[in-house]
Design a protein that fits this description.
It is built from four helices and four strands. The chain is an alpha+beta fold and 82 residues long.
């Protein structure tokens, strides 16, 4: 079962429409599963996720985290800053 939380407090689905119209402009709205795990959040006045950020997949993040990496000294030498 999915529960709606507004400002950290559980809200019944019957009241959700009214609260979305009023509170969602000033308070975070969370959607939680039956165990209380948050699986979606709506933050008021937050900037939308830019396309370039949304395009980064978990696989791409893992590939980048695998390296290779440069030390600061190596980077400075490579870019002519030393």
């Amino acid at each position: 079962m999915v529960m709606v939380y507004v400002g950290g407090k559980a809200v019944s689905w019957a009241d959700a429409e009214k609260l979305f119209a009023e509170a969602a402009r000033t308070q975070a709205v969370e959607f939680r599963d039956g165990s209380g795990h948050v699986f979606a959040t709506s933050v008021p006045n937050s900037a939308p996720i830019p396309d370039w950020e949304a395009a980064i997949t978990p696989e791409e993040t893992a590939r980048r985290m695998a390296g290779p990496f440069l030390t600061l000294a190596e980077y400075r030498k490579q870019t002519g800053q030393q």
